[in-house]
């Protein structure tokens, strides 16, 4: 079993496709991840399953690898209680989770932006330009820069999970660039396609960070590192001046257009 725990998950799933389905049952989406270089043992740690689920999962995996043997499932991570508890983030991680909320508010409006795409009128074009400005200045520079320039540097960036995060950021940037180009050529179809792709990538990405990456990082940072991280974030934020307030105002304006409040008669 040890040899498989130290193999990357893509190889394990290639050898034993049923393991991909077992992981999905426990909400561990390795079979849809195109990087797949996490080691099987790291995946179990990163996903912070309950002790019971971890044991069950390992027993099912062992059964697939050794169908004819009685294999004792290993406890990879010693856990007390029935864990995991409600996620409670450290202060710097909570900042990032809060920033995700504003980004998710834009993501929620993307279908309406697509339905109402107008690439001809100055107002229609300006709305797309302003949405791109929000994505670039808030989601990408303010938020992703904090992750890439500060948070990720506390960890070994060659690990698979961080490679996946970097790749998501790069893919999201590529779609934003494609939206700008499509706006120049007034190509509504391409704008809609890339907005949809951006929405899909960012929704999944934020879920991975909120539920898997940040809790795992919190578990692996010392108190003093968390304090330093918080102060690094505060220093970085000063560079961005009014970007957070301007971004929130923009999203509120979009919500007024696309999600009018319910009027109680
Ligand atoms: Fe990210
Ligand atoms: Fe993020």
Task: Give an overview in words.
By secondary structure, the protein is mostly helical. It folds into two domains: 64 residues, Orthogonal Bundle (SP0561-like); 168 residues, Four Helix Bundle (Hemerythrin (Met), subunit A), CATH 1.20.120.520. Helices cover 70% and strands 0% of the residues. The chain has eleven helices and no strands. Helix 7 runs antiparallel to helix 8. It is globular and about 70 Å long. The model has no long low-confidence stretch (mean pLDDT 86). One fe (ii) ion binds next to helix 6, helix 7 and helix 9.
Summarize the structure.
With 265 residues, the protein is an all-alpha fold.
Any chance you could write out the topology, listing elements then pairs?
Layout: H1 2-5, H2 9-15, H3 17-25, H4 40-46, H5 51-65, H6 91-115, H7 122-149, H8 160-184, H9 188-220, H10 223-238, H11 243-258
Helix pairs in contact: 2-3, 3-5, 6-7, 6-9, 6-11, 7-8, 7-11, 8-9
One fe (ii) ion is lined by residues 96, 100, 143, 147, 206, 209.
Task: State the CATH architecture of the largest domain.
Answer: Up-down Bundle
Question: Which descriptor suits the 3D outline?
Answer: globular
Give the domain tally.
2
What are the bound molecules?
fe (ii) ion
Q: How far is it from the N-terminal to the C-terminal residue, by CA?
A: 65 Å
What structural class do helix, strand and pairing data support? mainly alpha
């Amino acid at each position: 079993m040890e040899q498989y725990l130290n193999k990357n998950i893509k190889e394990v799933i290639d050898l034993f496709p049923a393991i991909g389905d077992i992981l999905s049952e426990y909400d561990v989406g390795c079979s849809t991840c195109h990087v797949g270089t996490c080691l099987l043992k790291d995946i179990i740690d990163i996903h912070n399953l309950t002790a019971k689920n971890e044991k069950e999962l390992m027993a099912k995996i062992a059964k697939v690898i050794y169908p004819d043997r009685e294999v004792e499932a290993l406890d990879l991570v010693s856990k007390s209680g029935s864990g995991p508890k409600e996620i409670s983030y450290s202060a710097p991680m909570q900042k990032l989770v809060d920033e995700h909320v504003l980004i998710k508010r834009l993501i929620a409006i993307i279908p309406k932006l697509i339905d109402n795409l107008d690439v001809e009128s100055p107002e229609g074009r300006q709305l797309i330009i302003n949405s791109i400005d929000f994505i670039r200045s808030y989601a990408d520079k303010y938020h992703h820069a904090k992750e890439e320039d500060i948070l990720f540097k506390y960890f070994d960036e060659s690990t698979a999970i961080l490679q996946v995060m970097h790749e998501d950021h790069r893919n999201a940037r590529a779609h934003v660039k494609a939206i700008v180009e499509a706006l120049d050529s007034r190509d509504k179809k391409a704008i809609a396609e890339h907005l949809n792709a951006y929405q899909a990538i960012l929704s999944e990405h934020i879920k991975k960070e909120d539920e898997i990456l940040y809790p795992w990082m919190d578990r692996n940072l010392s108190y003093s590192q968390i304090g330093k991280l918080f102060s690094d974030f505060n220093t970085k934020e000063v560079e961005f001046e009014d970007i957070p307030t301007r971004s929130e105002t923009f999203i509120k304006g979009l919500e007024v257009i696309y999600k009018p409040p319910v009027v109680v008669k």
